[in-house]
Structures are given as structure tokens and as C-alpha cells.
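Example (one chain per record):
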Amino acid sequence: MEQIIFILFLLSIGYGLKFLPFPSNFSQSLNLFVIYVSLPATILVQFPKITFNSSLLIPALIPYLVLILSIVFVRVFFKNESPNTKAALYLLMALGNTSFFGFPILQALVGNDAIQYGIVYDQFGSFVILTIYAAIIVAIFSGESLHFKQIGRKIITFPPFIFIFLALVFGEMPQIALPYIELISKTLVPLAIISVGFSMQLKLDEQKGVFFKFMALKLLLIPMIVFGIFKLFDIGGVVGITTLLESAMPPMITAGAIAINAGFAPKLTASLVGYGIIFAFFTLSFFNYIF
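Predicted structure:
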């Protein structure tokens, strides 16, 4: 509970900074530090702890189940909406905030052992989907052309991916360096959550029906389906709860930024991302409890 309160405190700090003379790209600067420094350090600490077995298939594959469910749900439940609205929903339904918001929540609700599986879910699921699927959605709904070479280059040059490779090659870091790497990795939670708070938009001006229907599908129905599958196949433990919580994360801020930049229902997108974070505190606690 103390960690959840701390996360809420950091979130409120980030949101409060919006009303002070901070530059508009402040959260982007924090995100870059997290991507290039904090997250790689966390990977160097946590990834060598992973025991490679068949259980890793669960956090690696469930993001693609979430992707399939998201596409189906948008097509079925939002078929009468405008193309711009559907484009935004395709992006936000499929992509959860599985790292910046996800890792601190996993740490608070499950513990440090969850981070290694969260990294698998995020890097082999969310990031790949963000890079490829998001590019396809933007291209389809904006009339742009796809450049698969550029997509491939983004994947292999993404810093966390590079450090996963380094962690696989070199294993655990030398004991003399490990305390300093762990210290750097501890910047992940405060900087990521403050960045999330600074990015939040809480204005809900229009499309309230779409808003509430989306929230019910994204934060409740999709993770409930994942939960049902886990119960059916008796999947439990840290792998199970970590994967379930990652599947229940609110819409990804980066996906929201892509939708807004492309002109896909910007007001609705900002509301879904902002309120999704607030609602997720309750829905994630619920799924953690019933698991």
C-alpha cells in the first residue's frame, strides 16, 4: 500500500508541474532519460535473473492475444465511429502502458521478481507491436506509405533491445559495478511516473459514450478474458499475475502521442490516456486481488 501511495504522490507531482513554468517537452526529456539510462540499467540488473524456460512464452505471447482482441473489439463495438476515432482506438486498445506505468505498478503489487517478466512482455510484445502495428495503422488511416526497413532499424537500435542483447551475452554484471547500476535503475520509478503525471490530460469534452465503452473493454473485459484463460490452463505464480496485470494496463502514452500527432481524435485520445491511468489503479488492484 505504501508503494501505491508513493506512486500516486509522484503522479500528482508530475501533474502539478504542468502548472509551473516547465518547458512543454519536459516529459519527453524524462522519457529519453528513462529509455536511454534508467530502463537499460534495470534490464542489466533484472534480465540475467530470468530462468529461460517455456513459462516465458506466456508474457511473450499474451500481448499478441491482446492485439487480436483489440482489433476485433474495435471492429465490432465501434464500427459506426469516424475513421479518425477508430484509428485512435485501434492504437490505444492494443497498446498498454506496460513500462513507464507498468513496471512501478508491478513492483508495488507483485514485487521485484515481476520486473523480469514485465520486461519480456514489454520488449517482446508492446514495443514490437508499437513499432510495427502502430506504423501500419498510421499508414492506413493517413494514406502514408510503409517503410519496413525503417521499422526494422528502429527495433534493432532501440536502447533497451540493445541492452537485452548485452545482458544475454554477458550475464550478470561484475560485482564491483552492480551497486552503481542498481542505483541508476532506481531512477526508473520516480522519473517514469512523474513523466506520466506531466503528460496526463483530464478534459472530457465529447464522445462520452465511446470513452466509457472503451474503458470497459480495455481495462475490464480484455484482462478478464486473459484471467479466464489462465484459470482454464492453471497458469499461476509470478509469471501469471505479472502477465495478467500487464494485459490490464491503461492506454500507452506513446500510442496516444502517435494518435494525436496523426490527428486521430486528439481530445478523446488525451482523455483516454489520462483517465485510463486513474481508473487503472482500481482495476489493477481488482485483478491483483481476484488472481
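Caption: The chain has a mean pLDDT of 91.
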